Amino acid sequence: AAMFGDRTVPGAHLESLWRGARGALGEPKSCQTGKISTAEAAVQAYTTQDAGVQTDQSGNAGRDFQQEAQVDYANLLSFLQRVEDAVVKELNKNWKSRAFDGFEVNWTDQNETVLCLHTLSYPAAQEQNLQVTSVSWNATGSVVACSYGRLDDGDWNTEKSYVCTWNLDRRGLNPQRPDLVVDVPSSVMCLAFHPSQPSLVAGGLFSGEVVVWDTSRREDPVIWRTGMTDDTHTDPVYQVTWVPDTKPRNPGQLWSVSTDGKILVWREERGGRLALAAGFAMVARQIPRSTQLKKFAQSEAAVGVTSLSFSPFDPRVFVVGVEGGYSLRCSTAAEVLALHRPGSSVPLRAPAELAFSPHGGPVYSVSCSPFHRQLFLASFPPRNLFLSCGTDGQVHLHSMLQAEPLVSLQLSKKYLFCVRWSPVRPLLFAAASGEGDERFCPAGDVHLVDLEKSSQKPALSLTQAAAERPVYCLEFNSRQSRLLAAGDAAGTVRVWQLSSDFTEQGPREMNRLEQLASEIMD
What we know:
By secondary structure, this protein is mainly beta.
């Protein structure tokens, strides 16, 4: 047999004396200890008591205070009776005094100087020697746009141009890197943001076309355009203007003017098309004549339109500037058809009602006042005022009720390209010039004229660009009234911060405007 082998034997069993002893005592047979007794004790006292932190006023202290407040009424009455006549005399003198006329308390921080906040440009446009032809602020007042093109000699038709925008509230603003750059195949002559939809901006091209861009669309911002049809302008478009619709979310009508003599009204249609809704035409023979004014030529020739401005108080009334040197008051309610204007899909009407005293050359800009006389009589039309400027270097201040200007101011020896009325100061306007008058500022290109101070010279002239670099356009910011943007022939846009003198209305300023508006010649 082998010495070693596998074998199974029964297991061993040992009784537990501990379990037996515990079982005999009737105690639980468990390896856990017995239940632990616990008790809760609050750490906060359950009773509270208020204690005053101020000491009680003693009776003596109260009596002392009452003694200090005692007044000798007999002596006080005697004093007031002695000085009564003198005080009343001085109060009456102060009440009648005009020493503080024009003074208005202002608790806001005062900005005493005019500063250039930003100098914006697009290097690619400057490399092509393109000029800033127009500037516009969007509805929020935070974004400024400019159009690039040419207003002097050049191959306008084939030259590529741009529309650029900058958000001035954006952190890390790069003045030479616009937030949006839109390439345009033709020179852009004018630009206008929509008054309530911040991303919509319209432009007029040298080709005669009108285009609307949506700046929120980066890839393909063109949303509407007129295309080149029989209705399209045949000359460059020099101004576009939005006329809002009363219906919400409706962009309204878009007006355009051109040196082809037509004023066209566009509406949107499906498919990204702008369709002609209405139109007007300026024909020399249909311009109203006055014995005081030089007569227009008796012909059916078109009168080129360069600028347009609507009355803010009567949507039927607008003013245009024309190449012949005149400003014309017009009406949207005109019913007379324009002479021999074939090719249009809608009848064109003759809108001119009154011709104003002419400038010495073409009128480049007109601007209706956003203010008018406070007293309005239903039987008498409001005396709306407007400004005009042109190649003679003069600004004319007109009432719409008379042909002769109320004020004529020589600001420059060269052209004035743009004039704009302040949106917050009734007696302030700005003008953009080709060169400043040596009497005021030899290199001044942006002139601020305060009629409250003088109707003969600007209150301030700002140097915008180098010599022989005219300022072509400027716009006040209606949302942020201290900002004024101006574009020049060097391809730059300067954003000026105006001082408090130019942004705060004086207490009698409206009265002075009323006086100007009332100076109508019999």
